[in-house]
Amino acid sequence: MKLIADCGSTKIQWCAVEDGKVVKEFFTPGMNAIMLTEEEMAERMGNELKPEVEGMTFESIYFYGAGCIANAPATLGLKDVLASIFPNAKEVLVATDMLGAAHALCGHDKGIVCILGTGSNSAQYDGEKMTKNVPPLGYILGDEGGGTNIGRTFVSDALKGVMNKEIVDMFYAECNTSYPEIIENVYRKPNANRYLASFVPFVAAHRDIPEVRKCIDTAFNNFIERNLLQYPGVESTEINFVGSVAFVFEKELTEALERHSLKLGKIMRSPITGMVNYHTLA
Questions:
Q1: In Å, how far from its chain's centre is CA 171?
Q2: Count of other CB atoms within 10 angstroms of residue 227
Q3: Residue 270: pLDDT above 60?
Q4: Number of helical H runs and strand E runs in the chain
């Protein structure tokens, strides 16, 4: 049996696969390996993962996650944690979510792969490995086009008075928030990135309002100009996306690519099915 995981900051989606079929699918809370010690990862996996796989034996573990940089201490620590939980596993792979996205979107074909979820990332893939990666830099310095970036752009315009007052009043009412509450959550509470991304549903619901649509276009244009245009041959290469933001804003994303004469490939909301296919058919 194989265990495959797609790990994001909000949740981890797991699939137990036997004879090419998913026999169990479940979720545990998300994490970023870089932000946890090995002891913290062991405690979380013990409490959250072990009860879900009680009585199951796995020969292979494939874990793809944010922050799982090749040969980094956090990645090696997580690999040790998984190996201790599954001592009978002959193979334990812990790799970046970008490689997981590449396996899901492209298989063994070359292309450019992108993640647009709470954050964003991209890479050039030759069918086996990533050949170039523009650093995403996180939500403070980068993550253009991700949910946090879209939410931050919208909230900033709303609070600075760039938007029509009627839109701002509607925003406060529908999201049950206020200027002081937003400042409190962004500057004084943890997980400001997730908080800002929580406003993406409002943006999606009101995307037909020009001021709101401008926030989406700004985020996607920045993602293209600061990331995609740095890849050699990008104009002749299919660009593939995975993530909730890419899925929800497919129309706006497609139009942004067309403005830059770029070619859209696949868009997947979640990569897990593609990951399962890759490791089942490989």
A1: 25
A2: 24
A3: yes
A4: 13, 10
